[in-house]
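Progress report, Aim 2. The chain analyzed during this reporting quarter is listed below.
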Amino acid sequence: MKLNVVILAGAPNNGPLRKVSEMEHEALIKIAELPMVEYVIRAVNQARYIDKIAVVGHKGEMERIIQDKVDFYVESVGSMKDNIFKGLEVFKDSEYLLIMTSDIPLITGEDIDEYIETCLSDNKADIYYPIIPKKLNQEKFPSVKRTYFHLAEGVFTGGNMVIIRPQILEGNTGLLEKAIAWRKKPWKLSRLLGMKFILKFVIGHLSITEIENKVAMLTGCKGHFMITNHPEIGFDVDKPSDLKIMEGKIIS
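Predicted structure tokens for the chain:
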């Protein structure tokens, strides 16, 4: 199965990266003379399991810089949640859709293919979210600070792409909005599950299966945390130190 992909590239450059780049949008910050989003687009184009590509961002600027390397340009509208829905409009009839951010320039076509192949080998879930073991992440990127969470199966950090059935977002807008807002604060995400789960999360006894079953009860959708051995999926550029590491790895 080939998937269509939505790349979210609408974030304004008004955070820590503003200190090192005057570009108006983070996706267009240059790394070794290429805009950050172009590395992601290159990887997507190299992946065997990708069909059509849509980029949600500043449409005119993206078209001028990226040109014909993608199939659709969609004007961003503000929040990540809103931009996800704008992307979904392009591929609303897709059985599954890959949604990813534009700030993971070390991602490769092979990483994407392996993730898609692993997730869709059973076709049983409505949404697949990647988690990366802390040990692997620190071995690959020892100087990078990440948010980690303790589960019964180990210590993990989250990734920056999901595979989703677009239809499941109908009626779950509020939950999606909370999940996006708290995606880097897992202790807050646990609040969605109730007090029992908060306590188990705090002591590191909450299991992946328990989370998946509770989310299914709350939303009617089956989610799956997919453990991946590709730290590049989770290493996003959101501060100058990240950008420096990325530049070193890409140039070398």
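The mean pLDDT is 87. Residues 3-251 form a domain with the Spore Coat Polysaccharide Biosynthesis Protein SpsA; Chain A fold (CATH 3.90.550.10). These observations will guide the mutagenesis work planned for the next reporting period.
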